[in-house]
Amino acid sequence: MNDILFAVSKILWFPARPGHFALILGFLGLALVWRGRRGGRWLVLLSLGFFAMLVATPVNQWMLLPLEDRFARPAPPPPRVDGIIVLGGAVEQNITEARGIPSLNGAAERMTEGVILARRHPEARLVFTGGQGSFVHGGTTEADVARQLWTAMGIPPERVVYEDAARNTHENAVLTHRLIQPKPGEVWLLVTSASHMPRSMGVFRAAGWREIVPWPVNYRTGHSWQAWYDAPFPERLGQFEWAFREWIGLTAYYLMGRTESVLPAP
């Protein structure tokens, strides 16, 4: 069943992705107008209206802000840290495989923060979880890229547990819990993007991680108009699509019983 859900989610995301969906509507509208159907003009207007909305308003920031503000780093930090979990999603395994050197994407702070925390807490166990998150992939996993990168940055390979089978956040939580088997009272930091933290915390709690502490990174929002309008259009579109996907993911995980609420709370 997990394999089917994974395949369905990847297949449906392509047409449902907001940018793709708007373009599909626009081309469909143009085709109808070409055939003399006046109703096609409304589809063209809807398509153009979506892109105009992204240019004129910070709707991308408005969608991300509730997610990124949901969980903050604890202040002060925990006095004792038993383990650090870094979620995949920050590496490009296909490009790494093609070029032979570790390739990172816009969520690279997950990887750098993992190294910072590992050096700040030398007594803590370090876990990276990530397998093949893309639908079309080669033989290199995210864990392979993480191992190559962190080893080059001076993290001893024997200190890290690399979980290389997880394809999504639910499997990150379940497989790492099964692999690590955390003991009651142990304090674990969870490192992932701030906008991804609500879904991650909900899933990890449901999987049995009770003493899990959020450690968000990779913020993309601010609370000033300068931050709202600073990003160029392609980045705004990317932020909107990421936020849309997170809200869809939160709803889907709740309906599937993988989280206890649509928007998990601190």
Automatic annotation (TrEMBL):
Keyword Transmembrane helix in annotation: yes
The protein's name in its UniProt record: YdcF family protein
UniProt xrefs under Pfam families: DUF218 (PF02698)
Alphabetized PANTHER family for the sequence: ENVELOPE BIOGENESIS FACTOR ELYC, INNER MEMBRANE PROTEIN, PROBABLE PERMEASE
Keyword Kinase set for record: no
Transmembrane segments: 20-36, 43-64
Domain DUF218 residues, every copy: 82-249
Organism whose genome encodes this protein: Roseomonas nitratireducens
Annotated keywords: Membrane, Transmembrane, Transmembrane helix
